[in-house]
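Case study: Flagellar biosynthetic protein FliR.
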Amino acid sequence: MLHFTSDQWVQWLGVYFWPMLRILALITTAPILSEKSIPKRVKVGLGIIITIIVAPSLPPVDIPIFSANAVWVALQQVMIGVAVGFTMQLAFAAVRTAGELIGLQMGLSFATFVDPGSHLNMPVLARIIDLLAMLLFLSFNGHLWLISMLVDTFHTLPIGENPVNSNAFLALTRAAGLIFLNGLMLALPIITLLLTVNLALGLLNRMAPQLSIFVIGFPLTLTVGILLMSLLMPLIAPFCEHLFGEIFNLLGKVRTSS
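Here is what the predicted structure looks like once written out:
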């Protein structure tokens, strides 16, 4: 009968414990995987499965789990996983922002409902574009790229060896502005045209005050907005592909510079 000492058990547990912290931190913050509609047991089970697959190929970690240094190392793993997940969330935040801006100009800002993922009120148009971005993310195998990117961090940012580079997190925060700028560029053509329609309605109201602009204005802007959205839909797929590519390139640069 095999007998194991307590030190052997702790060493074996550390092989899986440290990677699982980073992987679970990613799952709880990454797009789609962090949706509250996914049961917590499924998330934990997915994290355990990925850990079992990844952990044997990682270099050994000589850090006792029940030591004072383990607290800082555990915090490092959580920070890395959360940083990767939140960085990927920037792309979806940019898409949602574009949807909110378009919906505001179309007069659909009042049409909101509770988002099951965040439990926050979200405009209908923003949610539709967000769901479309999620489908495109899965069709581009973005979830696989994201997991692969996280696995690569175990080699570029080994557990307990290299400290987390503060400059890397600073680069991520600076890049957030560029990502949201892309979202604004997506919505800018429709916003400009709808603003032109509203200006035309304002001039029409000044020239013909007897016309009820409030009666014809909302159906007109809504109709024009829907027509413009139908023209925009074919462009969302290449836009999201470019946006996701920028995020992964950003993560790659941060990973290699850390």
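For the exam, be able to explain this: The chain has seven helices and two strands.
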